[in-house]
Amino acid sequence: MQKLKSTQHTNLIHKRLDMVRRLENQNYIFATSPKDATKIAKNLDGSAFERCVKRAELIDSDGHLKNALNRNEFLMKIARRGYYIAYFLLGYLAVFGLLGTQIVSFFYVFLSILGLHTLTLFWWAIRLKKPKSYSWLSFIFDKLRPQKPLDKTAFDIYQEEFFQKDGGKWQIGKLIHQVWLFGLFGNLLALLGLFLFKSYAFIWESTLLSNEHFAEALSLLSIIPSFLGLNVPTMTELLNNQATPASLAILMMASVVLYGILPRYIAYLYCAVKAKGSFRIDKNLFYYENLLRQYSQTIIDKDDYIPSRPNPAKAVIDTKTKLVATLERPAIHQKWYQAGAGTDAKDVGVIDSKDDIRQAVILANTLNAQIYLGIDTHTLPDRGVLRKFDTLVQGGKHGLVVEFFGDGQHLGAWHEALVARGVAEVHQH
Q1: Sequence-distant (≥ 6) Cβ neighbours of residue 30 within 8 angstroms
Q2: Helix, strand or coil for residue 231?
Q3: Does residue 37 contact residue 59 with C-beta atoms inside 8 Å?
Q4: E-strand spans in 40-112?
Q5: Which of 89, 148, 169, 242 has its CA 20 to 30 A from that of 200?
Q6: Orientation of helix 48-59 relative to helix 2-25, angle to 10°
Q7: Is residue 288 part of a domain?
Q8: HSE on the CB side for 240, CA within 13 Å?
Q9: Cα pseudo-dihedral 45, 31, 329, 382, rounded to 10
Q10: Is residue 414, in this structure, part of any structural domain at all?
Q11: Residue 26 burial by Cβ neighbours in a 10 Å radius (0-12, 13-18, 19+)
């Protein structure tokens, strides 16, 4: 129980973190400014991720995000339970239709209850390693989605928990198997009630199949129940039409349990184990990468790192061929550089690692090209970033110019870095 609570708490932490990310992208007004929360969290103890968690708690100081997540979790529980109850009632009432007369066909009832169930179970097992489409479940989610922005964002997180690549497959599997289990339990309860209080006679007649065929099939169904000590008909009784209605009723209910409920429950348990703790944030997203990078930084003395001072002549924006790149982060627009670098520029995309930067410098020098560097102002010019930047400044034989994009979060710090290095900024209008 303690482990379950811990898993639920961890899931809630990850969901609130992701909710903050989504709402920040929507320019949502929080109780505490994200910038202020970021600064405060930097001075707290703990790992980089723990500081991210604390930042999310500070941003949600009024608890509105947490409450929205709890409301939607409650909504999802209600929806699931409503779904279970509906299928239980459907299974329960279906048996009343099948047993509407006192003389019933054993195999007609048997196949009606377990036929589709068995086919869907086998189909699920066969399709387990293949991509699936659950449009019907998406339709249900769309109908349940709240209209308020805060609740809608929280709801989307829970929806994605079901449809994410790995864990989602098992979450959906759990739901499907639970629904079938409730339907089968409805079948079983209805069978028990009708067999207790009404008298039935069973037949197995067919135009194509003989009595021996039915007897053999019933005998096969009876193997496991008889092994468990249940009073089921024998082969001799079946061939001589001596099987009692009670023994056939017991065989019917035992078949629902052994060939319906039991395999479905095993499939449910398998999915439940696989789905444990399935929701986790994607730390590879730029949003989290930036936060974790900021909180992983160590405070250094001013003289601990002294950047080199390239020749100010590198600040000249000339008409040379341009080699275009973005530092650590991609630009929002694919052709962001065309106004400043032209359509003939060589775009090498995002450069981040030492090898990326080395290759970019070699290529720029080979092409006799000036480096046209795009920098997202969300990127903090810390020691590691500035070392990458200086490598480009020093290595490019034909100079380097910078174009900034983003909301200007660290623009002031970048301007200082450019002035100190004699690097020009391209201003687009």
Answers
A1: 20, 23, 59, 60
A2: coil
A3: yes
A4: 103-105
A5: 89
A6: 70
A7: no
A8: 7
A9: -40
A10: yes
A11: exposed
Total domain count, the chain: 2
The reply to whether 259 and 310 lie within a common domain is no
Instruction: Determine the 3-state secondary structure of 328 from DSSP.
Output: coil
The owner of tokens 């903050």 is 20
- 128 shares its domain with 216: yes
Q: What is the pLDDT of residues 367-379, one digit of tens each?
A: 888 899 999 888 8
Looking from the CA of 298 toward its CB, the CA atoms found within 13 Å total 4
Tell which of 275, 296, 331 closes a domain.
275
User: What's the pLDDT tens digit per position in 21-65?
Assistant: 888 888 888 888 888 888 888 888 888 888 888 999 999 888 889
Distance (Å, whole) CA 306 – CA 302: 8
User: CA dist 330 to 7, 285, 337, 352, 400, Å?
Assistant: 35, 12, 12, 10, 18
Query: Which residue, 80, 257, 243, is CA-closest to 158?
Result: 80
Half-sphere exposure of 306 (CA within 13 A, CB side): 2
- Give counts: helices (H), strands (E), the chain: 17, 7
Do 348 and 238 lie in one domain? The reply is no
Tell me: do 356 and 402 sit in the same domain. yes
The one-letter amino acid code at 335 reads K
Q: In terms of residue numbers, what domain contains 409?
A: 304-425
- Which residue from 344, 347, 323 is spatially nearest to 334, judged by alpha carbons? 347
Question: What pTM was computed for the model?
Answer: 0.59
C-alpha span between 241 and 233 (Å, rounded): 10
